[in-house]
Amino acid sequence: MSFSAKENFDHEQERATGILLTNLGTPDAPTRAALQDYLAEFLWDPRVVEQPRWLWWLILNAIILNTRPAKSAALYEKVWTDEGSPLLATGKRQREKLEAALQERGIGAVHVELAMRYGNPSIRKGLEALREKNCDRMIVLPLYPQYSATTTGSTFDAVAKVLKEWRRVPRLTFIDAYHDQPLYIEALAASIRDHWKENGKAERLLLSFHGIPESYFENGDPYPCHCRKTARLVREALGLDETQLQLAFQSRFGKEPWVQPYTDETLEKWGKEGVESVDVICPGFAADCLETLEEIAMENREVFLGAGGKRYSYIPALNDSDAHVQALTQVVLKES
Ligand SMILES: C=CC1=C(C)c2cc3[nH]c(cc4nc(cc5[nH]c(cc1n2)c(C)c5CCC(=O)O)C(CCC(=O)O)=C4C)c(C)c3C=C
Ligand SMILES: [Fe+2]
Ligand SMILES: [Fe+2]
Questions:
Q1: Other C-beta atoms within 10 Å of 194: how many?
Q2: 308 shares a domain with 195
Q3: pLDDT at residue 42, rounded to an integer
Q4: Spatial separation of the C-alpha atoms in residues 182 and 179, rounded to whole Å
Q5: Which residues form the domain of 221?
Q6: Which parts of the chain sit beneath pLDDT 70?
Q7: Fewer Cβ within 10 Å of end Cβ, the chain: N or C?
Q8: What is the pLDDT of residue 335?
């Protein structure tokens, strides 16, 4: 058995702190072939789909990887930019700004690398890049404010898989959640207030979070509780009541029940009940991506307007805004 180490290591080199900023991942291109590779890796993760392996292997390879890649590629095509996938392009800006903000804090040498749980740039490459910069202290910050085993837990698996091969395991902090961090809540509230100032305030505000299967929650995943706490804190920060601000879960996949209420059903119900205007924000997404730009800003707009609604506004993710970078800086500094 041999373990890996930094190339040309020098025992006298200055030590540094490394931050591994991670997100879910994204295909390399909006094409069927790229989607097939990306979905094969993503959907084979047992943290994401907990079905018995043999059964899921058959369903995934016989059905899903033959049908879904072309459909997903067409959706990605709608949100693709000159810089590539929005999730990755924004991630690169978040990395750069977070590194600058942390370096300003005078906490010694600090480097930030961006990595994706699935696809590129990989978690292995990110950790190795930090090791090359002499980081013997590392903080992993998955860009998921609310903990879920499907996302945060899976990121931990990927980090552990790499580090167990290293000769020098760094001092490690793994940030599990920041769903109630005050600057994160304040950044969300400020972004909503700014949106209201420019566009007027809708009758209702919907906070839409990515869903998970209900059985995962019943088996102990705290994700829906974290989402509810974020929603309550944002509601209190804005001084709204429980009819004015509500929470729902989007992006369900497969046939089993996911945590409820569902975003599309909620918007359809509101449209039919005569609610004329809604604002929608997705606090669980640190960066705009397919699930916000296509599913929420396009598909669900049609659902609401088709059910009788008159005005539908999507409030962007916090992305690389100064308020978001400050919130992430605070999350990291708390652990330094
Ligand atoms: C199969 C089950 C899935 C679970 C469970 C799941 C949980 C989950 N996902 C996110 C964040 C994102 N998901 C994104 C895309 C995406 N998610 C699934 C499936 C599950 N997600 C699929 C199949 C896809 C790919 C797109 C598609 O084919 O529909 C993304 C967007 C990535 C991008 O490139 O833009 C994000 C982000 C969270 C937060 C979460 C659980 C809490
Ligand atoms: Fe997802
Ligand atoms: Fe989706």
A1: 13
A2: yes
A3: 97
A4: 9
A5: 182-315
A6: 9, 12
A7: N
A8: 85
**For 171-196, how does the pLDDT look when each residue is reduced to its tens digit (9 = 90+)?**
999 999 999 999 999 999 999 999 99
Instruction: Consult the annotation and say whether 99 binds a ligand.
Output: no
Give how far the C-alpha of residue 297 lies from the chain's centroid of Cα atoms, to the nearest Å.
Answer: 17
Strands (E), 162-275: 171-174, 204-210, 245-250
ipTM above threshold 0.90: yes
How far apart CA 22 and CA 155 sit, in angstroms, is 8
Are both 188 and 302 inside the same structural domain?
yes
Report how many domains make up the chain. Answer: 2
Count of residues in the chain = 336
210 annotated as a binding-site residue: yes
Predicted structure pTM score: 0.96
Ligand 1 pocket list (CB less than 6 A): 24, 26, 43, 48-49, 68, 72, 85, 87, 144, 148, 150-151, 210, 212, 223, 251, 253, 284-285, 289-291
SS3 call for 218: helix
